[in-house]
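During the second year of the project, the team shifted from modelling isolated chains to modelling whole assemblies. The rationale, set out in the original proposal, was that interfaces cannot be judged from single-chain predictions alone. As a representative example for this report, we include one of the complexes processed in the last quarter. Its constituent sequences, exactly as entered into the pipeline, are reproduced here:
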Amino acid sequence: DIQMTQSPSSLSASVGDRVTITCRASQNISKYLNWYQQKPGKAPKLLIYAASSLQSGVPSRFSGSGSGTDFTLTISSLQPEDFATYSCQQSYSTPPTFGGGTKVEIK
Amino acid sequence: QLQLQESGPGLVKPSETLSLTCTVSGGSIRSSGYYWGWIRQPPGKGLEWIGSIYYSGSTYYNPSLKSRVTISVDTSKNQFSLKLSSVTAAHTAVYYCARLHLLLFDIWGQGTMVTVSS
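Output from the structure prediction step:
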């Protein structure tokens, strides 16, 4: 199985901050990397697919980059509704696997 | 728009079988190119894919759970189901159903909490 490792596991930030979350794959996954946002008690929501493509309806302050084994999710200006847990997921091979999540909290 | 809704018991006894159903509304489970899957999330932990099924009945399971898992589909009811046998407390989790396209989970159900306890 491909292991997905996220860092940091949590972070504190203020509204308006630029936030960057990193995801590393245990082997080359090309651009088969997706990002999800999950709020407490809710299902994950797809934000970005294929490393850098924004899902329909997702605000443009979210962006993704990377290829191979190293990927980043960036929120350019953190908004109150962005406080949540973010998880990466590889769709390169079966079984699809997820990172452990990064919790973004209010400073 | 397409919606998924999980249903089933919230409490299962150890060694028994966990059974859940996902009902698809606003679209057909026969949609070409889409698989339908189950994912679980133990309390405070990350997401784990359990398995997926195509409307034809073709299935893929996570090797870590394969010996315990059965996923089936009922196209007449627009539903697919999960059975997880011989459960233990380690199987306590929120269980989600989702639509998959090329191993990408694009639409999720709201999730249902299942507790394994006597």
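The radius of gyration of chain B is 13 Å. The mean pLDDT of chain B is 96.
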